Batch of 2 targets.
Target 1
Amino acid sequence: MKSGHVPASSIPGEIDLRTTLESGQTFLWQPEDGSHGLDAGSEGEWFQTIADGEVIEVSERRGGLDWRSTTDPTATLRARLGLDANLPDIRNAFPDEPVVEAAKDRFTGLRLVTEPVVPTLFSFILSAQMRIDRIHRLVTDLREHYGDPIEWRDTTVHAFPTPERLARATERELRDLGLGYRAPYVKATAELLRDGGVALDSVPSMPYEDARDALTEFVGVGPKVSDCVLLFGMGFEEPVPLDTWIQSAIAEYFPDAQRGSYGETSRAIRSRLGPRPGYTQTYVFTHLRTGGSAE
DNA sequence: TTCCAGGAAATGG
DNA sequence: CCATTTCATGGA
């Protein structure tokens, strides 16, 4: 086992690990004590994830991050947790709106992540009409049933399954895991990835709205799920996924941005959330989902 | 029991 | 093109 430290001085604005990892952006991390939720602080708490067959664990320490891993995860952590982003600058560019100010005051170290795209794609296909804790449970179940095992400190950690393995699962097996009507979506999208039916590699260089349309070629991916994949798995900062929480936030706080279609409402709300609409959205979503308001 | 969850696909106009 | 209906599952 290797271990090391990412100093606070190299993380402009620092990071709140628990809020960032438990805010519904990613479902690939496990808190060491097994308790999900944003109530507890995360200082000293270990969070575990997987990356390319390696295990990574991180913990907040004096504003920086302690890590232990099967490899040196520094570059991976910087990319996935967005550690190079200048958080104070980003937050200062947020729009002057009461609900945004309230969210900013509550979540000082919340960062936008960029997680591996294939697990993010499947995670958000599963997310349709599901609560966040249950999405996390299903992603973990998929890993434990179909993911390659990795030995780590007297335990076995499972990677996220490959598209090849998910394509080989039967719809019945996936339904028995609790996926419901999303089971055929997962299988069909896995087959598209396995057979190269959709060129995922070309998407990151596309203009945002073209990229959003491109991902809807996968089965179970509409505009909202596509926005989540672009925002949390590909580094786009324009997307504002219009889920139930954000739609109600628009109705309450930005009623003049409501339009007749997803695409038009998306444009209207993006124009109201500052230079990085997706970053602003993550703050507002986390705030509202955990009982916040504009007060 | 009833309602709802980070929606998408199928159907009907 | 837009509006309505259907689709599983589990927790409150």
Target 2
Amino acid sequence: MRLDADVLDAAHDLIGAVVTAHGVRARITEVEAYAGPADPASHAFTRTPRSAIMFGPPGRLYVYRIHGHCCANIVTGVDGVASAVLLRSARIIDGLDVARSRRGAVDEAALARGPGNLARALGITMSDLGTDVLGGDAIDVRAAGKRGDRMASGPRVGVRRAADRPWRFWVADDPTVSAYRRHPRAQVEPQPG
DNA sequence: CCTCCGATGTGCT
DNA sequence: GCACATCGGAGGC
């Protein structure tokens, strides 16, 4: 996985990768790229205590809370370059009963559909902030065999600024992928040229 | 399709 | 203090 390369390459590589966390294994089916200071939608557009981790080395987990939910990102880019890939959806491979106990009575395809639901199903909380997912810690992300799935891309979900950059990537026609929701006050970004 | 709203932390003033 | 957010479920049209 090219986590130290361009964040769009890293996002591509994370589709199909397998994440293991707290008794559940899942194959990633949907991600979004956030390009740091070059990206008004990124938490690292400005450097704050919360976003500082994204300015560090790749492979660490950036977890944040929003509206009472936790969301998990993989930090990308070499040390000093701030960017990250949000894990939005996944298909549970192993530990279905554990995931169900965390998520309640929902369809199997919906257990880890959407970033808040994914973190919940995998038991990821703020205590996992900073975990090195490449280093044999409690949470692990690794490339899996190529599956020949068709990849699709489009605008990111729920962002107000830079709302039209097609930096969301997902496995085409996969029922575990979340629906697109545009931010109600999405801003139009000036087009170059 | 759309709009509302609970939920709660972060960052700005 | 306060606006707003990488959300998600429910409900209306």
